[in-house]
Design a protein that fits this description.
This protein is mostly helical. Helix content is about 70%, strand content about 5%.
Length: about 130
């Protein structure tokens, strides 16, 4: 089941996923530092994501994505990386601009478009 969440919450989910790949225990402070946001903002997002069943969090403890949360976050991160790759390698967009644009685009691109983009990049790599 994939929850219908805002792009802002997807950014939190993606950040938690990335942090969990790097650290054993992810805490509110880690997320705030990673995203450059306040701890109260992280607490609100974590609370909402917990309500949707995408993560588990005990008060003042570590934050862990559920299986649904991991799946959703991985999908967002895959879209992000694919879009950034297209922008930088195919279109020649500057890395910093491509990162910012990919972060915005990852939330609104349709599944059909992302699939076609994947197929295009895959075909280009095979040349």
């Amino acid at each position: 089941m994939t929850a219908n969440i805002s792009s802002s919450l997807e950014d939190y989910l993606e950040a938690i996923y990335i942090l969990q790949e790097s650290y054993r225990g992810t805490r509110v402070t880690d997320i705030a530092d990673f995203l450059g946001v306040s701890k109260p903002s992280v607490n609100r997002a974590v609370s909402t994501l917990k309500e949707t069943g995408l993560l588990e969090h005990e008060a003042y403890g570590t934050i862990r994505l559920t299986e649904d949360g991991k799946s959703h976050a991985a999908m967002v991160l895959q879209r992000h990386r694919l879009i950034k790759q297209f922008l930088t390698k195919t279109l020649g967009v500057d890395d910093i601009i491509a990162e910012r644009d990919a972060c915005r685009m990852e939330h609104v691109i349709s599944p059909q478009t992302i699939q076609k983009l994947f197929e295009y990049l895959d075909k280009e790599e095979q040349k």
